[in-house]
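User: I'm putting together a teaching handout on how multi-component assemblies are represented. Below are the sequence lines for each component of a complex, exactly as they appear in our records. Could you produce the 3D structure of the whole assembly as structure tokens, so the students can see both representations side by side? Please keep the chain order the same as the input.
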Amino acid sequence: MSEQMLEQVREAVEGQIDFEGQRLAEMLTTVLLGAAGIIAFLVGFAQQDIKLALYIGLAGTALTFLVVVPPWPFYNKNPEDWLPPHTISAPSYSIDVDGQKVG
Amino acid sequence: MHSALVRLQNAFGFFTTVAFTVAAVIALSSFVSPQSPNAAMQVRNVQVVKGRPHYYSYKKEEYAHIKFDLDADLTSLFNWNTKQVFLYLKAVYPGTRSEPSSEAIIWDAILASSSAPWHQNHYIHPTTGKKLPKKSKKAQLAEKSNPASPYPIGELHLQSQRPKYQITDITGKLQNRENVTLELGWNVQPWVGALTWTNWQTLGVWKGLEGGRSDVFQFPEIGAKKVDMKDLKTEKGAEGYRLEVGGEQPRRKSQ
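Assistant: Of course. Below is the structure of the complete assembly, with chains in the same order as your input.
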């Protein structure tokens, strides 16, 4: 019982996402942070207010962290299936390493 | 990017890059903000008196005490990236024989921009002597705790200003020195970027300082004029007392 709960906690903290999700998360980090920096400078310069630039930059960063760090469901839309268990008698696949059959 | 910790590290890593880049662009933006400072100053009264560097000193030195007028428009030094401007007025005079010429600051001020948080050492421009319409008690109190400058930030009009510092030099002799000028200097301190000092030449959109030097005068002989002790007072600065190591905490006057 407690082990099951620990497992759940571990999974929640680790927050794993699939490969497509990783590509998306990386792209979102770059775009959001880059946009926050550019907007922070442009708005601050237009308003001649450096504190405004600072706060826009920090708010954009906080938003990026919120979007990217937790394992949101849309990062897990293309789960990669495990290979079928090895013990099945006639394997329907074969793994070749340098021409040698290993699996 | 497979786990939350890796994503956190990745996002933070890119955040530092963005923050540094934006800071660099802000620092560079100072150089495209046009500047056209000008200043005019006149010497009002120069006196040289004998004195001692401190109470227990046996050494007698000569001290010059220079009163001046200053009209300066430095408003264009304040752009969005300016935190404060340290403004100073120095007396420049050639050495007697082998010494190089001397530069000594006689007055200075910290001009804070509107984005800087309040500090007791920020310069408060003295108000003009003109009688203003009477204000309510509340307004008077507010004025007392937060006195407003009568001019925009960076504009100064000082008449017969007392110096903050009396000056002497390594020889200890100042009387009859000639070719003395007053020179204005500043140090712009930005929020991010490089410190810049007085520019006499035009660089891009930064015009050189117009004026900024007084006419040539000389330090008179000791006793050339009758000394009025009132004339020898130095300005303490309305901006409060400087806190020094071991110094006493300034006491606020009870209202």
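A couple of points students might notice: The CA atoms of residues 29 and 64 of chain A lie 6 Å apart. The mean pLDDT of chain A is 89.
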